[in-house]
Amino acid sequence: MRAQFVLSEIGVGLRRNLTMTFAVVVSVALSLALFGGSLLMSDQVSTMKGYWYDKVNVSIFLCNKSDAESDPNCAKGAVTSDQKKEIIADLDKSTVVDKVTYESADQAYKHYKEQFGDSPLAASLTPDQMQESYRIKLKDPEKYQVIATAFDGRDGVQSVQDQKGILDNLFGLLNGMNWAARAVMAMMLVVALMLIVNTVRVSAFSRRRETGIMRLVGASGFYIQAPFIMEAAVAGLIGGGVACGFLVIARYFIIDHGLALSEKLNLINFIGWDAVLTKLPLILATSLLMPALAAFFALRKYLKV
User: Fold this and answer.
1) 209-235 pLDDT, tens per residue?
2) Would you say 91 and 100 are in contact if contact means Cβ atoms under 8 Å apart?
3) Helical spans, DSSP H, in 94-162
4) What is the DSSP string of 250-302?
């Protein structure tokens, strides 16, 4: 009988404040969708880091005749055979190097023509203007500085470049966007909590006579508060369900179908469905507990009769 009464009171409360209940559902849905999106964005950045950092190379570019005339780092002339042997020997001895690939000037010219053959500059380049280089795969991408310290400024070396620096700029931008989403999420959560508190107080005020009578006949505080708390929890849970739907639909249409980014951007290793599905229980639990706790603390003071 008590359970039936509580459930009936929940239905009455939700219908009485239908507009505010709708506002609570929408605000909870949007804030938790942003919450889930920010968690997935963090997973995506971590996945991309693991995928790309494993593929980045450190490149040692060697001086050629053109560099000897224009680049201060190559003032002593083009790289010699002895200097190449010394570089290779030192790379072989290095404990941070996993693999070394040599690219000749002709190979560099061929690769440049394949990638930038339509540019006006490509027509004026010749193979002897391209630089020989060593492409080094490190055992740990964070150890770039070891190679830079050992080879930067050495005779015959024009420059040492780390591809990880380019990726760091990209990941910095993605992390910045993620923090911006979290800031918006935090504001939406505050709005949602304020709406929940106001909705509960309006509901409690509209039923103050009933709660007063219940108090007079000896009903416990929790028994009086339970319908209001569960109203907030149900509204929040509906919003959490909508947020989960947003995330599933977004993953389906943005990555798999619709925009189909997984097909158009083959170079990006997108997160899988497992990453999405593991976030849904957390979102649902948050959508249930957050409104219930907000209602509980709001009612402790307001329902003193």
Assistant:
1) 766 666 666 666 666 777 778 888 888
2) yes
3) 105-116, 120-124, 144-151
4) HIIIIIISTT-HHHH-TTS----HHHHHHHHHHHHHHHHHHHHHHHHHHHHHH
Question: One-letter amino acid identity for 230?
Answer: M
- Compute the C-alpha angle 297/300/301, nearest 5°: 110
Three-state secondary-structure class, residue 28 = helix
The torsion region of residue 275 among left (phi > 0), alpha (psi -120 to 50) and beta comes to alpha
Lookup: tokens for 94:
């290095």
- Identity of the amino acid at 33: A
Percent of the chain with pLDDT over 90: 10
All residues at 6 or more sequence positions from 167 whose CB lies less than 8 Å from its CB, including other chains: 49, 52, 53, 56
Tens-digit pLDDT profile for residues 122-178: 667 777 778 889 988 888 777 778 888 888 888 889 888 877 777 777 777 777 877
| Range in 49-58, 205-214, 263-272 with the lowest mean pLDDT | 205-214
Q: Give the position of tokens 């942003």.
A: 34
| Rounded Cα gap, residues 64 and 105, in angstroms | 9
Mean pLDDT value across residues 247-269: 79
Rg (CA), the chain: 32
Say which residue, 118 or 304, is predicted with more confidence.
Answer: 118
Which pair of tokens denotes residue 207? Answer: 């039923």
